[in-house]
C-alpha cells in the first residue's frame, strides 16, 4: 500500500493516523506541496484533483480524499474500527470530522493562502487574521458540540479514538502552527493530549515523517 | 423528520435530493441565511456550527453536515442505496462527493463571500473571479476524474444516481448562479441533464421550495 502525502499536509496526516491506529504497513511517497509537485503531470495522472493524500492499495485501487480513504480503510480493515456501530453514533462522528474537513481546513490550506497573497494581494497581517478567523469559527463549534455531550470520556466520542480524532489532531497542529489561541478549547486540548500519548498518533506526527526538513525532524 | 435548510443552500439541496430519491417524507423548516437566522441562539442551540442543513429524525437524533446526514439516511433507509456495495466503489463515489463538499463549495459559500467583501474589502469583480477560480478548479478535476472512467453510463458511477449526483447537481446550480462557463464540462452537464429529468431531482430544486422568493418560485 502506498500513501502519497506531504509531512505538513493536514489531510495526509489524518490518513497516517488511521493507518497507524489500524496497524497497516504502507510506503510513504512524499509529494512536495511548496514545490508544487502535486500539479506535475505525473501526479495529476494519478489524482486529477492535484491534492494529497492519495492511497494506492495492493489491488491497485487509487483513492483520493482523506475521508474517503479512511472510510475505505475502515471497511476493508475493520479489526480496529474508527466509527461506532450504530447509525446515529456514526453520523455524529462523521459530522464532527466533516465540520473540520469541509468547513475549517479548506479555507486555510496552501492553495487558498497563495490565492489570497497573489491575485487578491492580501497582506501578511490580514492573511493571518483570515486564518485565525476560520480556525476560531471551526474550533469553537467543535468545543460547543462536545460541551453538549454527557460524561466526557478520554476521546471525543468514547474511550477509544475515532475518525473524529483523525481529523481533530491535525487541525489542532495546524492551529498551533498559525499561532491560534487554543485557551478557549479545553475539551479539544484534553482530547489532543490523550491522543498524542498513543504511539499511533505519535508515529503520524508531521515531524516524524521522512520528508520533514532536518531542522524540525524528530525520531521517537 | 425535520430538515432545517434554506432554498438556495447547496448543502441543504444535497440532502433534499437524497430524501426525495429515497422517498422519505419530511417537514422543511426554513432558516434564512441572508437574515442570519442560522446564527440565532435558538438555532445554534440545535447546531453549534450555525450552518444548514440540520436533520432531526423521529427518534430525536440531531444530525448536521450534509454528507453525514446522507450517509445516515443511507444506513437507516437502505432500500434505495446511494453508495455502491463494494468498498472501492464506495470510496470512489465518496471521493467525488468530498471533492465538491470539501474543496469546491466551502470556498464560495455565503460566510466566505461576506468575509471577502467585509474585512478584506475585496471588490465585486475580484470576488467573482475568486468564485469562478475555485469553481473551475473543482469542476475541471471532476470532469477529468470521469473522463478517465470506461463506458460512461447515465450517471457518474452507474445507471442510477448516487451520493455523487446529490453533490454535483447543487454545485452546478451554484456555478450557473455565478455565471461560470460550463462549456468545458460536457460529461458533468450530461449527468445534470439526466438527473434533472428525474422527479426526485426536480422536487429538490431550489425554486421548488416554499421559502424561495415568489419571483423565482415555480411549481411542477
UniProtKB/TrEMBL annotation, chains A, B:
Cite the Pfam families for this sequence: GST_C_2, GST_N
InterPro entries to which the protein is assigned, alphabetical: Glutathione-S-Trfase_C-like, Glutathione-S-Trfase_C_sf, Glutathione_S-Trfase, Glutathione_S-Trfase_N, GST_Zeta, GST_Zeta_C, GST_Zeta_N, Thioredoxin-like_sf
Top-tier EC class: isomerase
A GO CC annotation given for this chain: cytoplasm
Keyword line: Isomerase
Annotated GST N-terminal domain residues: 1-81
Tell me the ranges covered by the GST C-terminal domain, including all copies: 86-214
Tell me which Gene Ontology terms the entry assigns under biological process.
glutathione metabolic process; L-phenylalanine catabolic process
Which is one GO molecular function term here? maleylacetoacetate isomerase activity
The EC number(s) this enzyme carries:
5.2.1.2
Q: Which family does it belong to?
A: Belongs to the GST superfamily. Zeta family.
What NCBIfam families is this protein classified in? maiA
Official protein name in the record = Maleylacetoacetate isomerase
